[in-house]
Backbone:
């Protein structure tokens, strides 16, 4: 099923995706762009075919998580760049789960990148681009009413469960899950409030390193001008076993 972008009402446009009004009440269509940003939106560019790859990679991982009982907003993939998702009230907090020191953690604490953490660390960041998405504590979150203590507990539990599952899944295809970012939303169902996983899971918001070489297979290749960005995203899809499927779906003019 294909929904033409021009015929739908645009709800929200972010850095990597656009949300459109869905075909049924309580749904949205999530469109994946090729646009790439880094360094709190200070660096901008395009990764050819990224939207097609991330759409399929995120679908694959969301379905896998749903199969183990993790509630997600994902309903189904509509076409090469679009998914049908449940409409949720996004909690304005980015949850970052870290297994290995990299990126801002290395810079903040002066710990060498690649240091394996004694246990996974969960960090919270306030979703506010104009402020640089500052790190916050659970005290900030509850004091300003961004989420309740019960919601934070649920988010923490789900985040660690997702981390355990994805770490094993990626290890099985020769990749280390260094760290990754999650977003959650509130979904009302028959007067019951549920916390569910939202946004996407892809090389855009996961740091993935090759187990043998530590080669970066994610958006750090764009952030750090390492080159071969498209190839890294393709390699993740190939290892997940979905690259031939993507190639078959994409017309010649849009193949990554």
Residues:
């Amino acid at each position: 099923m294909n929904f033409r972008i021009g015929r739908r009402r645009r709800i929200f446009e972010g850095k990597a995706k656009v949300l459109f009004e869905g075909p049924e009440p309580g749904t949205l269509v999530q469109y994946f762009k090729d646009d790439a940003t880094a360094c709190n939106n200070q660096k901008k560019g395009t990764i050819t075919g990224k939207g097609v790859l991330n759409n399929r990679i995120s679908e694959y991982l969301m379905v896998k998580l749903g199969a183990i009982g993790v509630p997600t907003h994902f309903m189904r993939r509509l076409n090469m760049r679009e998914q049908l998702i449940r409409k949720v009230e996004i909690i304005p907090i980015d949850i970052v789960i870290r297994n290995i020191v990299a990126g801002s953690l290395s810079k903040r604490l002066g710990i060498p990148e690649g240091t394996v953490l004694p246990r996974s660390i969960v960090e919270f960041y306030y979703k506010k681009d104009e402020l640089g998405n500052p790190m916050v504590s659970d005290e900030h979150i509850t004091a300003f009413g961004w989420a309740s203590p019960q919601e934070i507990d649920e988010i923490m539990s789900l985040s660690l469960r997702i981390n355990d599952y994805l770490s094993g899944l990626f290890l099985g295809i020769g990749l280390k899950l260094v760290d990754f970012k999650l977003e959650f939303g509130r979904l009302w169902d028959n007067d019951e409030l549920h916390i569910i996983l939202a946004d996407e899971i892809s090389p855009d918001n996961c740091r993935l390193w090759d187990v043998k070489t530590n080669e970066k297979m994610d958006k750090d290749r764009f952030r750090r001008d390492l080159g071969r960005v498209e190839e890294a995203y393709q390699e993740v899809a190939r290892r997940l076993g979905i690259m031939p499927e993507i190639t078959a779906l994409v017309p010649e003019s849009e193949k990554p």
Observations:
- The CA atoms of residues 176 and 209 lie 5 Å apart.
- The chain has a mean pLDDT of 92.
- Residues 149-171 form the longest helix (23 residues).
- The chain has seven helices and 14 strands.
